[in-house]
Each structure stands twice: as structure tokens, then as C-alpha cells.
């Protein structure tokens, strides 16, 4: 599925061990040259329930080029620009 996507969007939601795979998939997508847009990264310490594993994956994703947004409008703007460039 990752190879078929143009971009990965990670919303601001509580992360636990069950949905940790979503962030691991984001990392894989970035390694394969896909764009990743992540929302709400400023509150991740308040919503992560994995003893720091979430923070580590988020930092790794950002270092690999994931874009952090503060609103849906900003995320949609980035995705529209990607679509227009294809």
C-alpha cells in the first residue's frame, strides 16, 4: 500500500502500542521517497503512551523530511501542491 501512495498523513491522535505500526509505516514511506505530513507534533508528549517510542519515531520521521503542520488547512495546502506537481 505504501508504494501506491503519493503521501502519508499522520493525524493528531493518541498513540499507543496498537497503532505504533502507523508511525513505523510512515518511516518506511519516507525511506521510499514518499512525502509525510504530520499534524499536532507539538502535543505529542501529551498523547503518546509508549514510554518514548512515539517521540523517537516522530523525531526520526522529521529528520527524514516529514512536514509538520498545525492545522488541517495547512496539511491540505501541502497535499494540493503535491497533487499539482505530479
Secondary structural class: alpha/beta
CA-based gyration radius? 12 Å
What is the distance, rounded to the nearest whole angstrom, between the alpha carbons of the first and last residues?
19 Å
For the secondary structure, the number of strands is 3
Coarse morphology: globular
Helix content: 40-55%
Major beta-sheet overview: 3 strands, parallel
From the 3D structure, determine the CATH topology. Rossmann fold
Structurally, the number of domains stands at 1
Strand order, largest beta sheet: 1-2-3
**CATH class value:** Alpha Beta
How many helices? The count is: 4
Average of the residue pLDDT scores: 84
Strand residue percentage: 5-15%
- SSE pattern: EHEHHEH
Can you name the CATH architecture? Answer: 3-Layer(aba) Sandwich
Contiguous low-pLDDT stretches (5 residues minimum) are none
Amino acid at each position: 500500500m505504501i508504494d501506491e501512495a503519493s503521501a502519508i498523513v499522520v493525524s493528531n491522535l493518541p498513540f499507543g502500542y496498537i497503532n505504533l505500526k502507523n508511525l513505523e509505516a510512515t518511516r518506511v514511506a519516507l525511506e521510499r521517497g514518499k512525502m509525510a505530513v504530520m499534524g499536532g507534533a507539538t502535543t505529542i508528549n501529551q498523547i503518546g503512551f509508549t514510554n518514548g517510542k512515539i517521540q523517537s519515531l516522530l523525531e526520526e520521521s522529521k529528520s527524514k523530511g516529514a512536514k509538520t503542520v498545525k492545522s488541517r488547512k495547512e496539511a491540505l495546502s501541502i497535499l494540493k501542491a503535491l497533487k499539482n506537481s505530479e
